[in-house]
Design brief:
This protein is mainly beta. 8% of the residues lie in helices and 41% in strands. It has one helix at residues 42-54; strands spanning 6-9, 12-15, 57-66, 73-82, 93-102, 108-116, 121-122, 134-140, 147-157, 168-170.
Length: 171
């Protein structure tokens, strides 16, 4: 065969003069294979994958409701937590939160709180079709005019009883 011809041997296309397809594998017996540049620690990679699939969505919304008799407007905040792909079970999540309350024009007060699924209500009448359970917690403004301005903390979440995700930082 001449140098410009192509050969198909054992499923490998080999241009030019014929060489066995396994020629490039010579001398690699006993060596560890080199990891790909994108490969990392298995636990870390699985953590990223599980976060993509099961990471909860957390929203803090400001809402208001009007009393139809008196016409008074009541302001409140709603914490909505959606857990995609999960089914509710006891001990599903724990949120170690720091609530920041606005106590005046410029003052803020921080309060620590641990929130579990027992503290939240299952929201079954939401406007959107969720892909998992949605929990809600309502924060009403106090009589003194204090209102929740932000929430931060760490969420410990288990989408299934046998699977625990790495802690998720919330701001």
């Amino acid at each position: 065969m001449d140098q410009g011809s192509w050969m198909m041997i054992d499923g490998a296309v080999n241009p030019g003069p014929w060489r066995p397809a396994w020629h490039g594998l010579r001398g690699v017996r006993g060596r560890l294979p080199r990891l790909a540049d994108w490969a990392g620690d298995l636990d870390e990679e699985l953590g990223h994958l599980y976060r993509l699939l099961y990471e909860p969505r957390i929203r803090l919304e400001a809402r208001q409701a009007r009393n139809p008799r008196s016409g008074d407007v009541h302001h409140y905040r709603v914490l909505l937590v959606t857990f995609p792909g999960a089914t509710p079970f006891p001990g599903m999540f724990t949120l170690e939160a720091t609530e920041r309350w606005r106590t005046g024009l410029v003052r803020h007060d921080e309060r620590s709180r641990t929130i579990t699924e027992k503290d939240l209500d299952l929201d079954i009448g939401g406007a959107e079709a969720p892909d998992g359970p949605v929990y809600r917690l309502i924060y009403h403004d106090t009589r003194d005019g204090d209102r929740l301005s932000s929430l931060s903390g760490t969420l410990y979440y288990r989408p299934f009883p046998d699977l625990t995700l790495p802690p998720i930082r919330i701001n």
